[in-house]
Amino acid sequence: FVTLLAALAVVVPFGTTWSLDARRRARRGDDRGDVLAVGWVWLVRAQVGVVYVFAGLAKLQADWLIRAEPLRFWLPARRDLPVVGSLLAAPETAHIAAVAGAAFDCLVVPALLWRRTRPWAYAAVLGFHLVTWSLFPIGVFPWLMAACATAFFEPDWPRRLVARWRPTTTADGAAGTSTAAIVRRTAPPRLAALALTAGVAWMAVQVALPLRHLAYAGDHRWSGEGYRFGWNVLLTERVGSVAFEVRDPATGRTWTADPAELYTPAQLRVMPAEADLVHQAAQAIAAHEAAEGHPDVEVRVDAWLSVNGRPPARWIDPTVDLAAAPRTPWHRPWLLPPP
């Protein structure tokens, strides 16, 4: 989400009013207007809304709603927290949290859009993200989402907030909220049409990316195909293990490669549960062996995966030479179906 927001910041004129550029324009008497076109506001709202909507839709499945997985593993692990620790350890808590989380993600966008429910919805946003930040190591994401959710407020809310705490006077000395008139300018029709087309295309991509897993066969929570950028927030716990077997076809000798020679501990924690990373590791091991004087080696893996606490199962075909398998954005034929 940080990357997407940064990409939007390149084109969306966020600095129209409160920015160094706006101050410089004011000093120069540059009359470019200080009102943002409503289309930009709706683009930011749509980008934030996509995250919540698809996070909610992803939770409408049995693992989350019925079995409360993976919350029923994660919440008891925080039983050491003061005051709420015993509550988190209760089995009922995970089920209540699962239903509440799905309801929040599915309903928060329409609730933020409706003026009557907006204050309550934003209070729920703050509470929800405070809880997730307290319980799970997800970085700045909760605070960023809470800040971006203010895009659903009336666009002039920052001006009204400033005016409430720092009233100004008009040129004739009367009380007011601004010393300058708000200037509205209309974009040229061709530029407006281009911006509208680009905005629609951008949002079409944002909707298509979370749905692309439907183009792959099988369960994307098992294969991982189409999982990223799907806004599957806190939805799946994947635990994997992998051993790399190297074979030199020239001599017939086989040995087990140690990926710790090529990867950091943090990378080794993530890699065994991600098919594309296992594939990359196999090819990196082959390149490393070639540099050590063993060209054209074959690399096969003994890879096991557990999803949401289920018993581990083999998920990569151990007969396939991953060093020779091409990397592809399409379905990987060497992935085995779930048990």
Distance between the termini: 33 Å
Query: What is the overall pLDDT average?
Result: 88
Q: Strand sequence of the main sheet, in spatial order?
A: 4-3-5-6
- Shape, please? globular
Write down the oligomeric state: single chain
Question: Which sheet architecture does the biggest sheet show?
Answer: 4 strands, antiparallel
Question: What's the total helix number?
Answer: 14
Structure commentary:
With 339 residues, this protein is α+β, with helices and mostly antiparallel strands. It folds into 2 domains: 179 residues, no CATH class; 78 residues. It contains 14 helices and 6 strands. The strands form 2 sheets. A 4-stranded antiparallel β-sheet has the order 4-3-5-6. Strands 1-2 form a two-stranded antiparallel sheet. Helix 7 packs antiparallel against helix 8. It starts with a helix and ends in a 25-residue tail after the last strand.
